[in-house]
Amino acid sequence: MSDEKKTEERREEEQSAEKESETVVTDQAPKAEEAEEKAGDTTQKSEKTEKKTETKTEKKTETKEEKKTEPPQGASDAYLRLLAEYDNYRKRSQKEKDSLYADVRADVVTKFLPVYDNLVRAIQQGTEDEAYRKGVEMIMNQFCTTLQKLGVEKIEALGQTFDPTLHNAVMHVEDETKGENEIVEVFQEGFRLGDKVIRFAMVKVAN
């Protein structure tokens, strides 16, 4: 072979090699682009997954905080019931205490009422000893003042209309000058402590 032919064959081989290399590069370029796109998609997916995970974690944290700050409904209802029961117990105890104190005072005063009756009889008896009479009246005034301080009141009877809740009628008389059921005489004074009658007034009623 001549030198010219050898040179041409080498050129042809070099050209074919260059074409093959270009083909390989061309084929590899789309694959590289596809790889980059896939890598980008994977990164976006991972970012979305991370955001979802963070959102779920935040929601769980908020839910836990709300549960901590807000007491359970059942516990709140039980506390309100307990508070109402305690308030009722306190009021009932105070009422019983006041009632017991009033009953004790009434019982003590009842024991002293015969002394009052005797002082009334002593004043009603005529005497020429003015000093004696004045002394009895002073004792009576002191006794009545003590009853008032204890909250004890005398039940009005003479000239009043008969009231079975306050008076005890032991005699009845017909008298045209008096009104119907009018009390014309008091045999024994009555007393009450507040709304409670300690002793009914013993009276005579007309008509």
Task: Give me some keywords for this one.
207 residues, alpha+beta, three-stranded antiparallel β-sheet, rod-shaped
Report strand order across the widest sheet: 1-4-5
Helix content: 55-70%
Radius of gyration, Cα only, in angstroms? 57 Å
Give the overall silhouette. rod-shaped
* Beta-strand fraction estimate: 15-25%
The total count of strands amounts to 6
- Runs in which pLDDT lies below 50 for 5 or more consecutive residues are 24-30
What structural category do the secondary elements indicate?
alpha+beta
* Biggest pleated sheet: 3 strands, antiparallel
Give the topology string: H per helix, E per strand: HHHEEEEEE
What is the rounded distance between the termini? 175 Å
Number of helices: 3
Mean pLDDT comes to: 79
Account of the 3D structure:
With 207 residues, the protein is an alpha+beta fold. It is 67% helix and 15% strand. It contains three helices and six strands; from the N terminus they run αααββββββ. The strands form two sheets. It has a three-stranded antiparallel β-sheet. α2 packs antiparallel against α3. It is rod-shaped, with a radius of gyration of 57 Å.
